[in-house]
Amino acid sequence: MPNKAIKVAIIGSGNIGTDLMHKLHRSNILKLTWMVGIVAESEGLRLAQKLGYNTTHKGIDELMEHANEFDIAFDATTASAHHRHADILASSGKLVIDLTPAAIGPYIVPLVNVSEHLNKTNVNLITCGGQATIPIVAAINRVAPVKYAEIVSTVASLSAGPGTRQNIDEFTETTSRGLVELGGARKGKAIIILNPADPPIIMRNTIYAQVGTDTDQQAILSAVEEMVDAVQKYVPGYRLKTSPLFDEDRVTVLLEIRGAGDYLPDYAGNLDIMTAAAVRVGEEMANHLQESPRST
Predict the structure, then answer these.
(1) Which domains does the chain have, with CATH numbers?
(2) Strand (E) or helix (H) holding 143
(3) Disulfide engineering: 9 pairs with which of 34, 55, 94, 97, CB 3.0-4.6 Å?
(4) Does 169 score more than 90 pLDDT?
(5) pTM metric for this prediction
(6) Directed axis angle between helix 43-50 and helix 15-24, to 10°?
(7) pLDDT, tens digit (0-9, with 9 covering 90-100), for 100-128
């Protein structure tokens, strides 16, 4: 644990930013100082004010007038907005954890490659589908080379706000690349489904991985179960719906993610896994900063 908390700011006062705020409120390693939005009457800004944080509805420009009050920024806006934010934050030497699919910095999934990118100034958390499924593909790939990985993420329509809907194309492209670059699959494909069911469904993810026909099924089962246990350390609602299914050269893994209910209902596991991963990465970066201070 660091000697003292590292100061951080959230850019984006929508669903993801507000849920992230509640998780950061509990962190002993990260100290939230600013919540930034662009809509004065947003619920996120109102709640941030209630919790005693500095707020602004004037966007990143006003935040940068207080650049000495944070070291790490979490960007919970949109892919298009992050391109502008990234340049501004980089010019001030800030570290950035990007929760949009902009993918300016390297992809990062806490249990797959966080230690490789602690010196990077901008890291990307891919997508909710990526955070949910890439650990499983990576786990399978460690014991059986994955020739092709396809994932289908189904989320409740009510959990998909304007930012998520604007980023649908980026979601599929970014997640597909992540399955290859981090998961280790030779080829990857991602699909997202917004399910309007009432009552809303819990986030579900189906992973299809093509491996060799002579693969050790027990080794795959053990690798998947170990990965699920590890992810549950920071996403308690992450679980297998059933044991992995084997059909010749294909492995099918069914996941369910129930949110922690910090700000949004528990069916919003798609948001919960993003914010939980963001905190996990932020705390790793904070520890690294304490061990190897950097000048700005």
Answers:
(1) 6-125+273-291 (3.40.50.720), 128-267 (3.30.360.10)
(2) helix 128-143
(3) 34
(4) no
(5) 0.93
(6) 20
(7) 888 899 999 999 999 999 999 999 999 99
